[in-house]
Specification:
By secondary structure, the protein is mostly helical. The protein has a domain of 145 residues: Ferritin, core subunit, four-helix bundle (Ferritin, Up-down Bundle). The chain has six helices and no strands. It is elongated. It comes from Streptomyces niphimycinicus. It holds the Pfam family DUF305. Keywords: Signal. This is DUF305 domain-containing protein.
Amino acid sequence: MTAFTHVPRRPLHRRLALVSAVAAGGLLLAGCGGNDDTKGVDHASAKESTASESTAGSAAGTFNDADVSFAQMMIPHHEQALTMAALADDRASDARIASLAGQIEKAQDPEIATLKSWLKDWGKPEKASSGGMDGMDGMNHGSSGSSGKGDMGGMMSKEDMRKLEAAKGPAFDRAFARMMIDHHQGAIAMAKDEKKNGRNVKAKKLADDVVKNQSTEVATLRTLLDRL
């Protein structure tokens, strides 16, 4: 005879209570799982939306009016510096002046291309509505670098440029050094204004380079001027 162990059964009301509890727990877990999935989808959508906005915003780079003004003014400012530097090729008698002129050309020509590309990306014109090189007679020549909003300090007048073009030898060297000091100081003031008020990271970095490089060149030009 096989022996059977008697296992007492729970009362019916207890078994029903247990089943109800298990069922309720399953519904609770299912509900929690659904909420987590929903939250996960919403979170991912938010991330995708933010990423899309970030990509669209970075396509042209974040910028403000100060960045645009800096680029629009620095282009003709650099272009005039290149014109002055080119005159040194057959007019300078001091090798140090000729070397510095070449250094200016090498640095500022690529910067002009960069500034123009930024304005194109930003959907802005290369020239400010107030004018450009055509109005340089009214700009601040000899302003010792003072520059305000919309003001290209240090620009040479047409008469200044005619005098520099007519000079030769030591006379050219001295005129070039004096004018380029004023010209650089104007660019430095504009760059400092961009560093303070601009928003575009790359434009502010270029402005920082202008301040550092042209400040060094101003010091060099002053030393040369004392010896010419």
